[in-house]
Amino acid sequence: MNDTATLYFAGGCFWGTEHFFKQINGVLDTRVGYANGHVENPTYEQVCGHQTGFAETVEVKYDPQRLPLTLLVQLFFRTIDPTSVNRQGGDVGPQYRTGIYYTDPALRPLLVAEKAKLAAAIGRPVAVEVEPLHNFYAAEDYHQDYLDVHPGGYCHVPSALFEEARRANADAHSKNTYRKPTDEELRRRLTDVQYAVTQKAATEAPHQNAYDKEFRPGIYVDITTGEPLFLSTDKFES
User: Fold this and answer.
1) Domain region containing 93
2) In terms of domains, do 192 and 157 share one?
3) How far apart are the first and last CA of the chain?
4) Domain with 193 in it: what CATH number?
């Protein structure tokens, strides 16, 4: 097996997407740029003009022996609203479409399967492109490692996900290695309310949880397993 594999992820503004991937154990290198457009050597200004066909994209080189492809893709899905077309967070335009672009055709069935699993989990069509990489041009130097250079810079990815990315490949590798936590572990990790709701089918009091006023785009997941539950856009006033 090769020590290095490469995939290309379009997830909205590439500043936050790159910073997220850099936190994951097993990611070896990242580079932001423009993928799958129809002009040569595009500039940021040209891409923002909506006439080049490019998507803001992050080139991710990773060690497949340390970081399973399925986990890498599942983590990426956490950073986006997978049903949104040409929009992530407050960024709107075709350059902010979502996609996974590959250079190895053997990866396509795995990527398509992960997309289908997500669609089944949320019960909605998923707008993420899964296509071959036709071209990729590195973005200007000032875009590279942007949030390392500007820690307070704009980012559409919730900051809590960066910590989750740092833990992800240490805490949960794949479905094949998943071990259900013991009751003792769950009692230690969860609050009394979280334990009662997830393990005893209790109902929490209305308007009391930490996400009551949270309406940013994203996927809600099971606190005990990380499994997708529903989209933030499915929330409603009751």
Assistant:
1) 5-171
2) no
3) 52
4) 2.170.150.20
d(CA 223, CA 237): 22
* In a shared domain, residues 129 and 76: yes
Spatial distance between the Cα atoms of 40 and 112, rounded to a whole number of angstroms: 29
Percent of the chain with pLDDT over 70: 84
For position 195, what pLDDT does the model report?
82
Q: pLDDT tens digits for 138-177?
A: 999 999 999 999 998 999 999 999 999 999 887 544 444 5
Q: Specify the length of the chain in residues.
A: 238
Contacting residues for 231 by C-beta, under 8 A, at least 6 apart:
81, 82, 83, 122, 124, 217, 218, 219, 220
* 114 or 186: which leads in pLDDT: 114
- Helix axes of 160-171 and 14-22: crossing angle, nearest 10 degrees: 30
> Could you tell me the pTM of the whole model?
0.73
Residues 100 and 190 both lie in one domain: no
**Count of domains in the chain?**
2
Listed residues 151, 171, 191: the one ending a domain: 171
> Are both 189 and 138 inside the same structural domain?
no
Please tell me the distance from the alpha carbon of residue 174 to that of residue 71, in angstroms, as a whole number. Answer: 6
Rounded to whole angstroms, how far apart are CA atoms 7 and 160? 24
